[in-house]
Amino acid sequence: MTIRVVLADDQALVRAGFRVLLETEDGFEVCGEAGNGAEAVELAVEHRPDIVVMDIRMPGTDGLEATRRITVNPELTGVKVLVLTTFDVDEYVYEALRSGASGFLLKDTEPVELLRALRVIASGEALLAPTVTRRLIAEFVGRPEHRRVDTGAIREITEREREVLALVAGGLSNDEIAEHLVISTATARTHVSRIMTKIAARDRAQLVVLAYESGLVKPRGQ
Q: In degrees, to the nearest 5, what angle opens at C-alpha 97 toward C-alphas 93 and 98?
């Protein structure tokens, strides 16, 4: 499978470097470059890539707003966003995940790790380090300026699905969930898929955030 990518960064040299990296690797195709968030959204609509590699700080429409526009567009449900930035700022990471991004990497990430991240996200998984995610959520989820999700959707899931969601929020993979609950991996995958449908989450990254923001899972110490 060829992974089709749009590159969004206001620095032409950065985009050129990413393009060379991807085009010299089998299985990747760069189908567009954007210098700001608005252009990234336009290219996502035009090309329907598998992934948009999105910088955060760009002139005009920034990467966070562009991510929101892509993830709320029903015509772009198959388009994932990987946020890639020089800014290791927790709130950027948290807002990127809340906006629908499927992962977050710093620009000083090794090339092999970027390629791995793109493959992980294209496969439908989320690129999250569980310890980092829990730390972020513990810090930001209690802030009054952060909207808590409607718990009505959470009430629609079954007790077993709540158990699975808590394990997803703990950073467990489908295989690990299956082992923990003594069920098949296929059954675990089905539970995760049904939960995502019921609470309108795009991927596991949003499942983690929603699990904490709904109060179903609480950060340690609370």
A: 115
- Within 8 A by CB and 6+ apart from 64, the residues are 56, 92, 95, 96, 99
Kindly report the pTM of this predicted structure: 0.72
**CATH number belonging to domain 148-213:** 1.10.10.10
d(CA 113, CA 43): 25
**Contact by Cβ (8 Å): 37, 7:** no
Least confident of 9-18, 27-36, 195-204, 211-220: 211-220
Cβ count near 122 (within 10 Å): 21
Taking domain 3-127, whether its CATH number is 1.10.357.10 is answered by: no
pLDDT digits 0-9 by tens, 20-34 = 999 999 999 999 999
